[in-house]
Amino acid sequence: MLKPSQHESQSKLTPVKASQQSFSRIGILGGTFDPIHLGHIIPAIENANWLSLDKLYLLPAHIPPHKTQTSANATHRKAMVELVCQQYPIFQLDDRELYKDTPSYTLESLKDIHQQYPNSQVFFIIGMDSLLTFTHWHRWSEILQYCHLLVNTRPDYDVNALKQACHQSLSPYFTDDLTLLSNTQSGKILFHQNTNIDISSTQVRQAIKANNLDENTLCPSVLNYIKQHQLYR
After folding, report:
1. What is d(CA 218, CA 36) in angstroms, rounded to the nearest whole number?
2. What confidence score (pLDDT) does residue 12 get?
3. Between the CA of residue 14 and those of 17, 46, 51, 189, 197, what are the distances in Å?
4. Strand partners, 110
5. How far apart are the C-alpha atoms of 43 and 40, rounded to whole Å?
6. Which is nearest to 152 in space by CA: 40, 20, 21, 57?
7. Lower CB density within 10 Å: C or N end of the chain?
8. For residue 145, which phi and psi values (nearest 5 degrees)?
9. What integer best gives the mean pLDDT of the chain?
10. How many alpha carbons fall within 13 Å on the CB side of residue 106?
11. Pairing of strands 189-193, 148-153
12. Which comes out higher in pLDDT, residue 178 or 92?
């Protein structure tokens, strides 16, 4: 398991030089973050380094009250993300979805973000599984008017096989040419192989409940917060 302090020495990725950019660059990583763990953090740091992001926003998703009684509420999830942001200055909390009492659609959040940062390239970070279902998302083609999709893949995974598994309507958006991003504000889908961090929030919650958590899966400040508030017991 990689610890946060080990990450810089582990990464062998070649970043896109800032001098090549025509826009400022921000990343958006959404999720329930219930709790946020190194499986979120380390790949996101690799993304930020690879694309020379100016900032990477962590966007906790709204969870309807009926979902589950064992998940942390919005206040706790926000606090844990804030602790991570304090440790890693590249991250910043974006809580625009947390307290909504209506469904939160990615498109609406990206429209808001575009209005807030009209001169920025927005890279919306997703995983391989999300790409395979992307054409089922709410007004998916409009999403690409407001961002590039950055798809994180597992090491040594055949990206061409992933592309072939996707709906054919996505193929015009795929690119391997990062130089195109210098003057393209949105509308591309690119792929990035990350360090494989085999952790899920579900596994973390189950391990806490069973009292067998590998504490290296969480930032110390997040672990202390969970213990302090006796979350996921």
Report:
1. 7
2. 34
3. 9, 10, 9, 18, 20
4. none
5. 6
6. 40
7. C
8. -75, -15
9. 88
10. 26
11. parallel
12. 92
pTM assigned to the model: 0.87
Calculate mean pLDDT across residues 76-81. Answer: 97
Please answer whether residues 1 and 37 qualify as being in contact, where contact means their C-beta atoms are separated by less than 8 angstroms.
no
Amino acid at 27: G
Q: Which residues does 74 contact at the CB level (< 8 Å), separation at least 6?
A: 60, 62, 63, 98, 99
